[in-house]
Amino acid sequence: MASAHFENAELARSRRLKTLRTWLWKGLVVLLLLAISAFIVFPVLWMLSTSLKANEQVMVYPPVWIPRPLVWENYAKAWTVVPFTRYTINTALYALAVVLGTVLSNSLAAYGFARLRFPGKNVLFMILLSTMMIPGMVTMIPQYVLYAKLGWVGTYAPLIVPSFFASAFFTFMLRQFFLGLPEELMEAARIDGANEGWIWWKIAMPLSKPALATVAIWSFEGAWNDYVGAVLYLTDEKLYTLQIGLALFRSQSDIYWQYIMAASVVVMIPVVIIYAVFQDYFVEGAAVSGIKG
Amino acid sequence: MGYLFIAPWLIGFLVFVAGPMIFSLYSSFTNYDGAFTMDWVGISNYRRLFTTDQYFMISLKNTLYFAVFAVPIGVAVGVVSAVLLNQEIPFQRFFRTVFYLPKILTGVAVILLWMWVFNPQAGIVNTFLRFVGVENPPLWFASPEWSKPALIIMSAWGAAGGMLVYLAGLQGIPKQLYEAAEIDGATGVRQFFKITLPLLSPTIFFKLVTGINGALQYWSTALIVSDGGNGGPSYSTLFYGLRMWKVAFTESRMGYASAMAWVLLLMTLVVTAVQFYVSNKWVYYEGERR
Lengths: 293, 290
Fold this sequence. Notes:
The structure holds 2 protein chains of 2 kinds.
Chain A: H1 2-51, H2 55-58, H3 73-81, H4 84-115, H5 121-131, H6 136-149, H7 157-160, H8 168-179, H9 183-191, H10 196-207, H11 209-225, H12 228-233, H13 242-252, H14 257-277, H15 279-289
Helix pairs in contact in A: 1-14, 3-14, 4-8, 4-11, 9-10, 11-15, 13-14
Chain B: H1 2-27, H2 44-51, H3 54-85, H4 92-104, H5 108-117, H6 124-131, H7 147-159, H8 163-171, H9 175-183, H10 188-216, H11 220-225, H12 240-250, H13 254-282
């Protein structure tokens, strides 16, 4: 009896020790996460705070975190100094065209690689995979020469047209997704006399919304944030995108950081909203593809 | 029928990738200026790169400097973040959203944000450094010694968002392994090195390969950060790609820039091949006997 009692007490103590250890561990994890979160969030808060400061408060020491008063006019001012409204319309149209082209062309090619049989498929697919290794800089120069010969420099064509021709990365990603779709559905449709185009559009596409949403978001983000391509090909000020606008704005108003930060915040917002709205779709797609993130 | 479906890729590949690359290879042996001159010059572009072009060496060194620090730091930040976020803790969803933030905030706006954060006079970093007693904090983007470290810190910030891939990898590790280790009395640290890291190694390998390739092609941030996009101060942010960009589009020496492009491609291929070769020694694939 006495020894059994002793064992119970021992057991209880070791269990208490163990819970204590897990709690300590969890506390440590949370502390570490808080520290990294601070590193991530502080620059962003610093930007938001600056964007609302009056000119006298921007450079003071010690720094002010909550500006008083909140100068919302910074946003209005930043927005009108440079024709940001026009740039926004340009960028939005350009990004939407790229999304349309990317989703359509890549899903077509991916469906072909995932679901159809044709001679040379494996070789072509290997070529597709190997093109992912080619640095963008290698094709950038000859592509510029090509677009110059076509008379496309100075227009949006070099930025939009290529997106209607599937890229290796998105085709590969969508192919992986299409491979996972149930074959029975498509086979049944084929027996009913549906052609492959119908199956692609009516069966494969609707079943792949998470993957397509991921492709759409990433291509939108890519177009929205593309600075190098825009600055290389767009020469007419009327056609500028937001990214060029921001860079120009910075070089013109180097000391007025409250305006620069205000404009930066506004330019970032659409992408943030899209991520927030499509978050579930997006995380699902990223988990399935397991590629980017 | 299949060809019809893959036509968008096939045509795009021929017109926008294969054709341009053949043209680029040819022009790397010429003095092509983007307009009318295109005379065959043999390997003299390549010879010049490795013998007399000091900017080539500077840009190569800058790029390697960046890669050597940014890639390992990026992987470490990603793995540690994912392991921490994979624990059962309160506010898990909140933390994951915060960690994903750098992936969402991108473009010129973020570069401007960091230029303000690193502002020598009033930026938050130097304000903090002065507060803790550093009398002459670095000038960051205005200093040849500190401009690259600043860019590396920026990239570490972005790498936190890369945790999602590692997180997916972690969630693929069977729980029973940890339970068995627990029973055998293995400590958490031991479990991390004996279970987590080996089973995560394919993901780490994947991120290393893409990370190193990305670092070799890193340059466009410097276009914004350095004054006039010149790769300053004192050429400290003149990365390989930026040098190529200037040679091709500012100086219109398309042939010479094409030679640089092909050197970059060869470097990429060699580095990747070496990584695949070495990977046999440390990457663990399930179902493989060791």
